[in-house]
Amino acid sequence: MALDSKTPSGPLAQKWDKHRFDLKLVNPANKRKFEVLVVGSGLAGASAAASLAELGYKVKCFCFQDSPRRAHSIAAQGGINAAKNYQNDGDSVYRLFYDTIKGGDFRAREANVYRLAQVSVNIIDQCVAQGVPFAREYGGLLANRSFGGAQVSRTFYARGQTGQQLLLGAYQALARQISLGAVQMFPRTEMLDVVLVDGHAKGIVVRNLVTGEVSTHAGDAVVLATGGYGNAFFLSTNAKGCNVTSIWRAYKKGAFFANPCYTQIHPTCIPVSGDHQSKLTLMSESLRNDGRVWAPKRKEDCTKPPGSIPEDARDYFLERKYPSFGNLAPRDISSRAAKEACDAGHGVGPGGLGVYLDFADSIKRLGVNVIRERYGNLFDMYEKITGENAYEVPMRIYPAVHYTMGGTWVDYNLMTSVPGLFVLGEANFSDHGANRLGASALMQGLADGYFVLPYTIGHYFATSKIARPATSHAEFRKAEEGVQERINRLLASKGKRTVTSFHRELGKLLWEKCGMARNEAGLKAALKRIPEIREEFWKNLIVTGQNGGLNQSLEYAGRVADFMEFAELLCTDALHRRESCGGHFREEFQTPDGEAERDDANFSYVAAWEFQGLDKPPVLHKEPLVYEEVHMSTRSYK
Amino acid sequence: MNLTLKVWRQSNGQSQGRFETYAAKNIIEDMSFLEMLDVVNEELMERGQEPFAFDSDCREGICGMCSLVINGIPHGGHKGTATCQLHMRHFKDGDTITIEPWRAKAFPVIKDLVTNRSAFDRIIQAGGFVSVNTGGTPDGNAIPVPKIAADAAMDAAACIGCGACVAVCKNASAMLFVAAKASHLNLLPQGQPEKDRRALKMVQQMDEEGFGNCTVTGSCEAVCPKEISLSFIAKLNRDFGVATLKGK
To answer: Which parts of B96-140 are beta strand (E)?
Structure first.
């Protein structure tokens, strides 16, 4: 199958305008005849569901949480980028586009990224109109701050809770449509399969998590906005419930999965404190505006109190290695630098897995009150978890899995290789290439939901002309039976090991072999080990309780079962990409000074994998990355 | 440290609940409270027993999913702390800890420690929004918002919708939750056109859901993990009063 990105022709800056004109429309009276199933209620899902309902489509929205307001977008702290140039510091749509493409290590689709930069300005206007309480200057205008990978201040923020406020804006827009009867909401409902009829996505199978009832829903299109797969690593900054299930089931039904090896390790997380750890907590990247990252120069200083280590015995390694970006170097680069320092024996804290993020200079320069106003909630959060006061001693940080750039392959219209199936937000692969810049995830989720899908989905309806089937159709019965059978198989698992113990084992393996640095031998070892763990999982798993009613052990088992399969694809992709780029660092491919070495001649493409069955290797489809506008350069932040 | 847990078990909304006692062994102080519960549940499962159900998701105090009454106090009684942010360093060896679900008529128990809080969603649906469609909005800087108003709105908007305010209130009133959302929007210029209707509709929905009346005891403010101020209730009362007088 040919991989057609459907990127419009013409000059880059005019592609989206031209495309919007070329897209077929559905007249207002006909829109109500179309029903859209939206799975996920985060920034992308909620904004899409609300916007589609406003246009007149009938929408059903599903989320596994008890309320759409709890989707994990809520935890994003730092901010959202937009090319407003309110600061008069040289920003423009083109600069945001260029920074994003460069930040992604030239592995993103040019036209998508340009469109993202274009609509970024509309997102801010939309959110302000919804009443999102962005930070303001005394004159009443919007404030900005700077973020990693950029030399302009284009990040809009609402204290350290930007994701929360943007999500509540989208949630409230969704709530309004629910009250108008335009959206039917299904909380505590998990999607377990997508139903294809005549090759088009026309429905889903869901399980009501409260009653255990499995049911099907038919629609004219299916939209998945279910987030990333970072929890494959067990420990990540993702919420406990985040999972790969919906996009994995879609993959097994023919939706190609692109670039799974592009995983983002965030440099500023609170280090692991022990084996009991259930998740990791992020400290916003915005802290790097005022915090300086360092490690002791002498190994023997690592156990001393940081205050007793003199200035000349500290290695401010980001400032030293990347003088022009300093502490605001992009995430992949900062994470690797921290890992290098710790690997070389300069790490601090338990297990030597940490470096300092020090605010002493900023507190001296700006006063403690300014720092408290900017980051108070983050300092409080740090103290709750570690019991340490970061106004007095430097924070300890270490990189952790945070975001996944890979995801379901989508074309310029956000449609997957399965017609009628659209994937938005973190769940798709589209805009961040091999590495995402800070404050760009919120931008992409809302761009997809508010300003891209509402246009492109209409074109599918206007051109595909395939009627919505009834749920009595044989394909629905077949999918439902498949789901039920899997649930029964999980419930029959009366072995000796808990789901958590399997998940932890898988996660540890992935972190070691397919984490911040990867190599051929390690990936091959992981690919050998994963099927063994999976086999044991199905033989020796304990799942307690019944299907009829709330059963968290069963829910979790189902999600981990999918991670067990997905992990193999992750490692397969990482093994095949014999280059280093962005979040994918292959130890064999680095420059003499340890920087990532890209191979544009052989790997300048999107790797989209097609499922062939669990016991067969997936088929690789390549979408060549053609850069009409930018020149692919070696990424340098020095 | 070793602890004794008294945990509320209830099979479903229709059945009678009861406390059951469990031992939490070898707990270390760096664990979060929920990680301690994970350890106990793991042991139960290894013995083939059913773990107790509790809600949690982000585990960093922002999603509002976690909801435990710990020793009689929602979220455990540490200032500005949600259950998931509570750490075991606040407990000592030999302690007995009682763990219950939110208790309120409007939050029926689903199972064990898990309750149904969709009443909150319906209150937002009644008026907790600004009626703007996607697109066609003015430039973000077209309407200046005084910093003081933006900051106050943000203070109110910080609510995570967990429901601790209801769980602690002797009347199971949702006034702090309703006041936080109504004030967030009513303090901003964007919220003005629907200010009266918002106050009336949200309060009306709150009453219909079976939440009790507010007698301003302030316990809600005391347990709120985001420290939402009681003064927003005063603001809601004023907005509601003005709207009622206007007869809208």
So the answer is: 96-100, 109-111, 114-115
Same domain, A392 and A488: no
Nearest CA-CA partner of A277 in B36, B40, B19: B36
Architecture of domain B117-246: Orthogonal Bundle (1.10)
Residues A269 and A395 in one domain: yes
Residues B90, B77: Cα–Cα separation, whole Å: 11
Q: Which CATH architecture has domain B3-110?
A: Roll (3.10)
- Confirm whether A320 is a catalytic residue: no
Class of residue A347 by CB neighbours under 10 A (exposed 0-12, middle 13-18, buried 19+): buried
Considering only CB atoms, A384 lies closest to which of B50, B85, B161, namely: B85
Confidence bin at A634 (pLDDT 50/70/90):
confident
One domain, residues A303 and A394: yes
Measure the CA–CA gap between A494 and A542, rounded to whole angstroms: 5
Which of A402, A436, A460 is at the close of a domain?
A402
Q: What are phi and psi of A77, to 5 degrees?
A: -100, -55
Residue of A331, A336, A396, A436 with catalytic role: A331
Min Cα distance B209 → chain A (Å) is 15
What is the 8-class DSSP label of residue B213? -
Q: For residue A500, list chain B residues with Cβ-Cβ distance below 8 A.
A: 38, 42
Domain of residue A384, CATH code: 3.90.700.10
A275 and A366 housed in the same domain: yes
Taking contacts as CB-CB distances below 8 angstroms, the residues of chain A near B232 are none
Contact A239 B80 (CB under 8 A): no
CB-based contact B161 A67, cutoff 8 Å: yes
Do A279 and B59 lie within an 8 Å CB cutoff?
yes
pLDDT digits (tens, 9 = 90+) for B24-37: 999 999 999 999 99
The mean pLDDT value of chain A amounts to: 96
What is the ipTM metric for this complex? 0.98
Q: Is residue A393 part of a domain?
A: yes
CB–CB contact B34 A142 (8 Å): no
Query: Considering the domain boundaries, does residue A468 fall inside one?
Result: no
pLDDT above 60: residue B248: no
pLDDT at A147 exceeding the cut of 90: no
Residues from chain A that touch B63, judged by Cβ atoms under 8 A, are 65, 70, 72, 74-75, 239
CATH 1.10.1060.10: which residues of chain B? 117-246
Range of the domain at A308: 265-402
The pLDDT assigned to B178 comes to 98
Q: Which of A209, A244, A186 is nearest to B53 (CA)?
A: A209
